[in-house]
Write a structure and sequence with these properties.
Blueprint lengths: L13 E8 L12 H11 L17 E9 L3 E4 L6 E4 L6 E9 L5
Antiparallel strand pairs: 1-5, 2-5, 3-4
């Protein structure tokens, strides 16, 4: 099976992914290693992780459908509602399934 180099689908293509978000408080833990976290994110979410800014906000060239599987999460939207970030303020892991549809955009 060929290695997936990006979770972002091609224009008109689709991708189904399931992601688990740790609680935001996990990043405040003294044992949290931001370098290891970044490395893990890039390995687990190629293409998408490259678009995530340090504050967690990002814009992708996709139309996304999200289905909550477990937990609760806050969707933070920027002006225009395209640039966004997910905030897990619940204290528990959160799991969501996404269907990404490739669209035109700057990414």
């Amino acid at each position: 099976m060929p290695k997936v180099t990006s979770l972002l689908p091609a224009l008109g293509g689709t991708r189904f992914i399931v992601l688990t978000f740790p609680p935001d408080t996990a990043m405040a833990d003294p044992a949290f290693d931001p370098v290891a976290f970044d490395r893990e994110q890039r390995a687990d979410s190629p293409g998408i992780a490259d678009l995530v800014e340090p504050d967690g906000m990002h814009t992708t060239p996709t139309v996304d459908y999200g289905i909550v599987l477990q937990g609760e999460i806050v969707l933070e939207l920027d002006v225009g509602s395209t640039r966004h970030g997910w905030r897990n303020r619940s204290g528990q892991p959160f799991t969501m399934a996404f269907v990404l549809v490739g669209a035109e955009g700057d990414g």
